[in-house]
């Protein structure tokens, strides 16, 4: 088994593994919070002040009856509610990653810890418990973390630290811990899995578990079977067993099954046809020639390829134009589309692509397709201007937002040009879900966004490829 990058998972108690109960007490939550944040309480938590003296000082400071304060603390301590969802998830993590040590690091006074000790031990997940009452140091002070590392024989770089207080997280991160701010159980467990697991292996497991059923969905919840998404999954994985494809005739239709959507019937199209003929390795030359002739017979007055092989639907989309040009250029037939190269470069030069297109709302699709062309022909001088324009645009857009589809497209675009893109790589890696896949993203749309199509399969395939490429570029 591959050694874990992180050998220890360090968890806080209160607010992470334990939730403060809503038990009836005679003091306001604000007054309790203020008392627990005062220096007197900090001394008590680190064993420098006995309980009776601490309680007397708190009662005097806030004008409280000391017995009321003592009863309040007892109720809040014995009433702590275990985060059973997180505890179960940690138990599963330990079974998946047997070498992982789970350690508690908590600010807690000794009497409270003794009341909770049996409960904590009963969870069966802790390899070690490190509390302020015994160490004499409390978070977020640096000494608390240094003492923890020394006594547990850890390095900060080998630890994932989870806490619900931002000052503790910042202090830990500054010392080299991989620190996570606990906000909810689901996102925290997903983040831990992403740090411990192999994202490529987990992503491929997800794809293989859903092989043959990685279809898209419409924004009204309908299953949407299309060739285009299947071809993208194939392009990014190289695994035909994952996809289902359907071809009728010498060109391709976007749809699998009846090419009809909400009352409209769709002809075969240049977008799906060119993607298929670009990535499939068993297409006869005569079929490619037929497709090129069909496209050349279906151009705009400016010589730009229309989307549909239907003279009643003269639709233009610069992302589809880029896809068509890629196919022609790879076939050595770019000269049959005079002016298209300059048109694409002009869109890059002016930044007009940033508006998105008729069918592709995300502007990074344009960069993705053209970068793929340049990556396939890295020494082609005929693509030099396009390559330079793409490089500049991709550099400008790297890490520009946390949209996962955009990040994946930019990551792959940069990699096609042999450029590292750490910012978008981080966004992509952090978005992996517990099941190993990535959440559905909206890929494209019908005209003017009337209907959107989304997919988990496509974004998962892209993410896996991007992460895999990044690892090979190290």
UniProtKB/TrEMBL annotation:
Family annotation (Gene3D superfamilies): HAD superfamily/HAD-like, Putative phosphatase, domain 2
SUPFAM superfamilies reported for this sequence: HAD-like
Entries under InterPro entries matching the protein: HAD-like_sf (IPR036412), HAD_sf (IPR023214), PGP-like_dom2 (IPR023198)
Domain of life: Eukaryota
Record PANTHER family: ALPHA-D-GLUCOSE 1-PHOSPHATE PHOSPHATASE, FLAVIN MONONUCLEOTIDE HYDROLASE 1, CHLOROPLATIC
The protein's name: Uncharacterized protein
